[in-house]
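Q: Could you fold this chain for me?
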Amino acid sequence: MGFGASVGAGSSRAALRAPGGKGLRLGGRCPCRMRLLTSAPMSRAAELSVVLPCFNEAGNVARVVREAAELAAHVATLEIVVVDDGSTDETASIVEGLAVPGLRLVRHDENRGYGAALRSGLLAARHDHVLYVDGDGQIDPRQVAPHLAELRGDRVLCGFRAPRRDPWTRTLSGFAWTSLVGLTLGVHARDLNCAFKVFPRAFLREARLEAEGAAVDAELLFEARRLGLRWTEVPVAHRPRVTGQATGAKPTVILRALGELSRLRTRATAPFREPERALPL
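A: Sure. Below is the predicted structure, expressed as structure tokens.
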């Protein structure tokens, strides 16, 4: 199966404690210094990290981890990083009890937000390419397998839900958010917040990631465009949520995302400045 349309630059199970600081920045160099990125396709026997952000997903996380583990048959090296964002249920203990090779657990002491959870997972990833899929079980991570041979160091792979299996209110709000980000930042994706994206790890080391909430996908693609990457969109099957509760439509989540989008807009219109460095003595 080949890639779809391209857009972008042109237009061990041991628990880890995530850093508690806000506004973490991965790298921060000038876009012209992205020497680590390459346009060469990866071989089928690639390294892959799978990041699964979770909040109160005790009923779903084991299934998603086991599905992700099946990707080991398609790559040379696989790791699975589950991020427990301060869950109040048994999410963490379930993950700790899974006998899955390459599985690691990152824990937040408190619920910090979707963007913070995803960023912690991206920071913890060790392999050349990083797939993230939510721990709610609505997207099967094994859908990345047909695309592994075509992953590139200068390209992001973005899924779009076809069709989306959510209540119409969430589908409508998702369309509105995608449209608003396109108008505000000029970042255009068919399904912006679809939790199925593959990033080159070299990009993640350079990207400036600060969003703690639901604007993290907008920020990731905003940074991808700033650093000269393009993205390719592919359809992914989307399953109804079987158990657990979605939090993306809460008013507090929406207001937080709007605030983050406003700050991204400010970044988009501000001149780029190199990070300050200490002068040699």
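A (continued): Residues 10-43, 275-281 have pLDDT under 50 and may be disordered.
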